[in-house]
Amino acid sequence: MSMFQDIPVDVGVIYEGERIRRKDMFVELGGPDVKEKFELARVKKLEDVEDGKIVIIGLDIKDMEEGKTYPFGILIEVAGAKLEPELEGVIERRIHAYCNYIEGFMHLNQRYDIWLRLSKKSYQKGLNSFQYIGKVLHRLFKSELPIIEKMQVTFITDAEKVKELYPQALQIYEARDARARGLKDEEVDKFYGCILCQSFAPTHCCVITPQRYSNCGAISWFDARASANIDPKGPIFEIDRGELLDPEKGEYSGVNEAVKKRTLGEITRVWLYTAFGYPHTSCGCFEGVAFYIPEVDGFGIVHRGYKEVTVNGLAFSTLADSTAGGRQVDGFHGISVEYMRSPKFLQADGGYKRVVWMPKEVKERVKNFIPPELMDKIATEEDAKTIDELKAFLKKRNHPVVERWREEVVPVPEAVPAEAAEAQEEAAPAMVPTITAATLPITAGGYKIILKDAKIYAKRVIIRSVKSETEKR
Ligand code: SF4
User: Fold this and answer.
1) Whose CA is nearest to atom 1 of ligand 1?
2) Chain region(s) in the chain for CATH 3.40.970.20
3) I need a labelling partner for 128 at 20 to 30 A (CA). Which of 35, 175, 354, 368 fits?
């Protein structure tokens, strides 16, 4: 008998990667329209956890209004004689995968950024209570991680309760991240790889080192080590780092070999500390994007929660689209906020000396890690909203990139469209001058050029009637 006989929808790996569009959703939980949302795993004492208990604080699915968005929190409490608090991050990250196993239930992102949708179809099939989702999580966690002896799940949809628990969750994430700081890449023999996101981006493989936190910002080197120890056949695996081929760019022979193997030969080289050449791939779960701004020869940074357009006129969703999909795209680099606290952050590109713009919110979060002499030279949305304003700001504050303007001619990176970006395009503002078309025919000089699945960014579009042009001649 199937483990999920009593669940009204199918459960299986085949549903991972399933996208639910707004028009097909019954309800949305968390996501960009809700400020407070979180998922959290805690390791507790055996006597403090009631195995199989599922608690719902606030409305259950059947009491929700179709088409609406609700604040959301998931708290997973686990206990086991061999369970260490070090495993909390790893257990928490599996919530993403296991929720996605449920037919018609989509989970994106992590920690304080979660975004879930339930499809109308699955709701109509009877998936109308968090009790079912709790049961699936309980069974999957216990069967895949037998180290978990007891587990209880709490779903929170009550806005006040989510609001109350949200700052506590942020503190727990911060404490977890801080534990992992201090260790250097050169001091360890093993790095770790993660392919949990390959269902969304088949050629993506995260390389997690002490000084390069996972792109999703949810798995530190310590978390990865703990995960590989308890589940060596799981999605997180050990990488023998091998020979250090380039200390500046962060190229290791063992990393190249492991990534090549895990991406079936698609990615053959990885430079860990740069956004150019052979940068680390990006799946779609990254917390932020470092994007090259050729006009000033510097990097802008934007996080997932930023609602406005960035200084180059593009929104996070558009930049994410150019970054995601398990590709190596020059100048478009998926990052975690914790990586911005690493001394290796974009080391080969100049680190913070090359960063010119970021939202105020991100600057605040990483302020203790920005060299003090650069603090007031990096613009936020309050200092510059356009490239011209940015140029003036950088010049006035004498940002180190200004020196580069005199030195070199700047290469323009190529933006390649993403096949596997998240369902974020819905959030893209109408003002962004991006054209997407399945087939875009261009007729010129007697030839027809067809661009298939193209996405084109243009600074200005000029439409002239061919007739009037001919008449002029
Ligand atoms: S972003 Fe990377 S580390 Fe995080 S779950 Fe995905 S593959 Fe794993």
Assistant:
1) 216
2) 185-427
3) 35
